[in-house]
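Record type: monomer structure entry
Structure origin: computed from sequence
Chain ID: A
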Amino acid sequence: MRTERKPTRLDRVFARLDREPERPAHIDMPRMSRHRTVLFGSALAFYVAIVWAVVITSWLVRLDWRVMFFRPYEQWAQLHAFVDYYVVLGQRGPTAVMVAAWLGWRSWRQHTLRPLLALGVSLLLLNITVGAAKYGMGRLGPHYATEIGSSEMWLGGSIFPSGHTANAVVTWGILAYLASTPRARRWLSALSAVTSLGVGLSTVYLGTHWLSDVLLGWVAGLLILLALPWFEPMIARTEDRIFDWRDRWRERRYARRGRTAPAVPLPAAAPVTLKPLTDREDTAVPEPVSASRSATRSPVYLAPGPHLGRAERSPVSPAGSRRPSHGERHPRGSAPSARS
């Protein structure tokens, strides 16, 4: 007897990848709700407070100098090799390539450009806001400090806020922003927060940033993620224009070849419930299927069950047989009961 091979976990994974999903119309786009607006305002106020604390050379600047004189890279020298690799999670080039590759695969599988467009908008906002703050305030880093205890502002530097930290918040946080389930969004948000904060502390460990640079960079990246819902209408319009341009280009290309462009499959609509036609008079009664017709079907191979002995099997008449069932037949070796 031939049996079907039981699919393994790897087979199920590839079967799921081979399916062609539809455009995710059920995913709700984040909106600028009242709760999100309050968070954005609070983060903006915290951003201004950090800048003001550095400008007036408050306790935050004194803490920066204490951490710098502590020299973490000398206190924990055994961590230096690991931190050198970990800090790459905040560099713009490697992280953007990795996240763009993943979101590009999602865009191709889900027939939507929203993941890639959202990533592009967030990186553009990151370059504009963080770049302007860096060169506008011109703070020098710990390795180039000129006066002990000073804020080192407006001296031609470009480290305030920390670009590594802000980039880690935006690049890894966009995965949580685009998550399709609330549970995945919560887990990815916590993971991106811990990763970005670790990247910022790595720069403090290496002595390339002040501690206040990391705090301001973390808030700067958070502000960009909180402001993304304001750009969702623009992302949707851009996606529609790109698809319209693609459809027109395909039509012109096929027109030059004298052929008709194939129809683009539309997103699947809501399922339609079909009701049986029992109230119509012209409804035909289905013809009963005979045993001979069922015998022509392809055989179904089932997994073998527990083996039973011949004496333990109950007598069953074959399907379609005209012989009467043997209700009085007894297994071999047992005495028949007396007839009345």
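Annotation 1: The CA atoms of residues 161 and 173 lie 18 Å apart.
Annotation 2: Residues 17-23, 266-305, 307-311 have pLDDT under 50 and may be disordered.
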